[in-house]
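Sanity check. The docking grid for zinc ion depends on where the pocket ends up, so I'm generating a full predicted complex first rather than guessing from homology. Inputs follow.
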Amino acid sequence: MKNIHVLLDNGHGNNTVGKRSPKLEDGRQLLEYQWAREVVRLIAGMLEAEGITYSIITPEEWDVTLGERCRRANAIAKRSKVPTVFLSVHCNAAGNKGQWIEAYGWSAYTSRGETEADRLATCLYDAAGEIFPEGKRLRRDFSDGDADQEAGFYILRHTSMPAVLTENFFMDCRKECEWLLTDEAKELCARVHVEGIKKYMV
Ligand SMILES: [Zn+2]
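Predicted complex below; grid placement will be based on this.
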């Protein structure tokens, strides 16, 4: 694949209820919409350095509906002269009561069934295995023959191009939250997306 256009979606917005970590003792808190925007901006910068074109489909700070996200992505894909892929960047959460939970790891989701998105997800897992430091867990599900987890997420079902949603560790796991808030973590999470794309383009 000589060229590809990457559609970047940062989950949620500043008006989204929940979608945040519990507060750390020093008052810091991970807000998913903010973290995802930061990481998407890093991904964009890295893609630019690689000469890979992209669109950030949700540049707004506020929440854009899932339907509108899909409409924007599909409209860009329709106009694009090169193949498009879609990445939606999130942080995982295991609970919803504002408490710390013991849940660990990074995962990538595709829609159900074998599609081109599965190959993209496999490339992302390969990059994750190479880039994340030792001790970081990759959550894999090999029940269908590849590593990615499959789910009926709206954004994955209603986008017309290969689409993967990444859950970049657990924001309600104290250890992972503290790490996610570091520049190193944001940089590495962004790098995984970019290297995954590059593997996919080979
Ligand atoms: Zn999310």
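Relevant for the grid: The chain is about 40% helix and 15% strand.
Also worth noting: The mean pLDDT is 94.
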